[in-house]
Amino acid sequence: MTMSFSSVSRLWKFAAGAAFSVAVTLSPAAIVAEEVAPPKGFEVLFDGTSYKGWHGRPHFDPRKWNEVTAEQRAEWDKDMKAHWSFENNELVNDGHGVYMTTDRDFGDMELLIEYKTVAKADSGIYLRSNPQVQIWDSTEEAKFNIGANLGSGGLWNNSPGAPGKDPKVKADKPFGEWNKFRILQVGSRTSVWLNGEMVVDHAIMENFWDRTTPLFAKGPIQLQTHGGEIRWRNIYVREIGTEEANQILASKQADGFQSLFDGKSLEGWAGAVKNYEVVDGAIRCKEGQGGVLHTAKEYGDFQVALQFRLPPGGNNGLAIRYPGEGDTAYVGMCELQVLDNDAPQYAKLDPRQYHGSAYGMIAAKRGYHRPTGEWNYQVVTVKGSKITVELNGTVILDGDLSTVKDLMANTPHPGKDRTSGFFGFAGHGDAVEFRNVEIRELK
Fold it and tell me: Mean per-residue pLDDT for 241-250?
């Protein structure tokens, strides 16, 4: 079962209240048992008494995980058991050793976790095997120069000045008290609450292992430790489905968007209108038809948000600054590919032909589609000669067309320097669908 963003918040508050109520009526042994039960919709990641579901792994590039031998993995597990133990349904680390790492990989998810640490300890939570949601001693003056005084919860390995690197507020509790994290991960977007205070708001978590590529689409959760004892308890996770993920992303859209599609008709659209239809609240290219369906209004700098759904092998495109006639991939500023990257017939394309790419000019990063048949959420920003494409919460293209010199097949793109034009859909005969199409003009 999936839940809305606000419902999850209410559940977390309810769970905390329920725990208090139990505390005044049950024995201590019963209280411990009650705390291990997850809130509705969540599952237990740590059962309180064993390593089940976890293995040992150090700070390690996940791209090389398949190269690690069985012998090395066994050594890491041995190290884990030497430094991690269990006490009163708590996971206890002595400040040394490899990191506790989930056997499972997670994509979009919500994590609830509590921790208690000591003075001068330093720790964190790796998401998708990527460092990290920071935990440290916010009173340690020796680390004030690197941000300890700002408190825990920030994405400390983000670049200096990047959103999310420093927490918005300091919400750490005094030593000896338990701290509660709520972490929401959708695509590369990370939100963090510490003790009920939002400390990171929908910030992009950078890929520590390769800052030229986005955060991995999936990966394990790791509990980092070094420098002092840390205890963990009540570790729960909830995987987030497509519809909820899209709702969360849409809720974070900037102000000023206006709808381009009423959900019932193609009123306000021009071009190849006869080759498109409205089905179940979505614009769909008719099977075997194509051409560019475009807005009646021209745009210069703009941002468009939409959802799209691909049939197997589906191919379409977003027309950017289209002049109204001709092949938008060449006469417009560009065509941004909308493509089923995993279809066998597309296995050997030029990298600049896959989804999100500025066709024939700049290649987008791959691996961030939802499964074929599910709705994807995408935001495109066009400002001057620069284009950014964010797919399902992950930036897959961030390029400047004015710098492009190497063109696929040496085919000229005379329209790439256009400063205005229509926005639209460039159909290629497949029943690709679009819905919730909104646009805002940028100054």
Answer: 98
Q: Are residues 243 and 278 in the same domain?
A: no
Do you know the residue count of the chain? 443
What integer pLDDT is reported at residue 36 of this predicted model? 63
Domain count of the fold of the chain: 2
Alpha-carbon distance of 300 to 356, in angstroms, equals 20
Dihedral of alpha carbons 206, 212, 213, 219, sign: negative
Looking at the fold, whether 237 and 266 belong to one and the same domain comes out as: no
Range of the domain at 18: 5-247
Q: Which residues contact 82 (CB under 8 A, 6 or more apart)?
A: 97
Q: Which two tokens stand for residue 170?
A: 């300091």
Q: Residues 199-244: pLDDT tens digits?
A: 999 999 999 999 999 999 999 999 998 889 999 999 999 999 999 9
Q: Are 356 and 369 in contact (CB under 8 A)?
A: no
Q: In this model, does residue 4 exceed pLDDT 60?
A: no
Query: Tell me, what DSSP letter sits at residue 358?
Result: B
The answer to whether the beta carbons of residues 401 and 417 sit under 8 Å apart is yes
18 has pLDDT over 80: no
Same domain membership, residue 258 and residue 199: no
Of 218, 247, 276, the position where a domain reaches its end is 247
